[in-house]
Amino acid sequence: MAMPMRAFWQFSGYCDRVLTAENIDHLQLIVTGQAGGEAAVEAMERMAKVAPNPVRYSQHAVIAASAVRDEEGFNALRGMS
Q1: How far apart are CA 76 and CA 56, in angstroms?
Q2: Is there a domain that residue 8 lies in?
Q3: Where does residue 80 rank: exposed (0-12), middle (13-18), buried (19+ CB within 10 A)?
Q4: 65: in domain
């Protein structure tokens, strides 16, 4: 808990702003879906600029996430010290 109180509340405010921006995006999507036609095309172009590519995990991250801890080896190393 080394974060100063002021920094905590500043970051807390950022979370609210991010959530608000996400809610606005959802609302715009609903409105343009009802409007249809050209508005829907413009909305898709705006969304492509905001989030152009999906997040792709590197092969190393996938291997690290699926790694299993070797408890026997860990206990053997721990016993050496």
Answers
A1: 37
A2: no
A3: exposed
A4: yes
CA–CA separation, 7 vs 42, rounded Å? 38
Does the residue 69 lie in any domain?
yes
Q: Is residue 67 assigned to a domain?
A: yes
Give the structural domain span for 29. 17-79
If one counts the domains in the chain, the total is 1
Residues 6 or more apart whose CB falls under 8 angstroms from that of 42 comprise 32
CB atoms under 10 Å from CB of 32, counted, come to 19
As a whole number of angstroms, the distance between CA 7 and CA 39 comes to 40
The pLDDT assigned to 55 comes to 63
39: how many CB neighbours lie within 10 A of its CB? 14
Taking only the tens of pLDDT, the chain with its 81 residues reads 566 777 776 777 767 666 777 777 777 777 777 777 787 778 778 777 776 666 667 788 778 878 888 899 989 989 987
